[in-house]
Amino acid sequence: MGDRRGHNRLLASLDPEIRDRLGPHLRSAELKHGSVLFEPGQEVTAAHFPVGAVVSLLVVASDGRQVELATVGREGAVGVPALLDGSHAIWRALVQVPGAAFVLPLEILEREIERSPSFKEMLDRYFFALMSQVGQAVACNRLHPVEQRTARWLLLTHDRVGEDEFAATHQFLSEMLGVRRASVTEAAGVIQGRGLIEYHRGRMRIKDRAGLEEASCECYETVRRVYDRVLPWGSS
User: Fold this and answer.
1) Nearby residues of 225 by Cβ (< 8 Å), 6 or more positions away
2) Could you tell me the CA-to-CA distances from 163 to 60, 81, 141, 171, 200 in Å, in that order?
3) Exposed, middle or buried, 232 (CB in 10 Å: 0-12/13-18/19+)?
4) What's this model's pTM, rounded to 2 decimal places?
5) CA distance 99 to 91
6) Are 93 and 76 in contact (CB under 8 A)?
7) Partner of 184 at 20 to 30 A CA spacing, among 14, 73, 199, 204?
8) Do 104 and 8 touch, CB atoms closer than 8 A?
9) pLDDT at 233 over 70
10) pLDDT tens-digit readout, 132-159
């Protein structure tokens, strides 16, 4: 299957002729930590296909508080669901891990959808997987303890970054999980004490992937299976 780093799973899964048509319209961009790609209700003009960056999709309350519904990295795209609402964003898209992404004008995406039924089918499958992740996150945040939820978040981020080390502060993680920072600090301390991760100055390193999977609830594995079933890696 080859080295998957530097690839985007959604783009790699497309038929070669579709990739050839989209290729000239894709441009490379570096997404910076903390930058907001769009806000709820805002018109979306481009889709982002991360290859190193990770973007959080957040629901924002009227008092400004936010909680993460899903993360998007090299397995998918940010901005595609906007096609369901007249090119307007459903959630806030916040860059949680900086890195590279391909950017495609939404009008090109819409043109290819009209031209290619197989492309529309691929995007429909991706949207199904994304909605499955959203639903699982809602259930996980309600039913499972912070330690398991922290492990689940780290695993999902690890998958989407494609590297063992990435930026992740306790404050940011607490906002994503919708809990107090002290709760995340305690949970991360327990996980680190078991030798599963290493945390230093805002950098998280995964040391024992298998152990981290055991520390997580079943939600991580449920999400992973859905993506593997509906969106297999392509050959490129």
Assistant:
1) none
2) 29, 27, 25, 21, 16
3) exposed
4) 0.86
5) 21
6) no
7) 73
8) no
9) no
10) 999 999 899 889 999 999 999 999 999 9
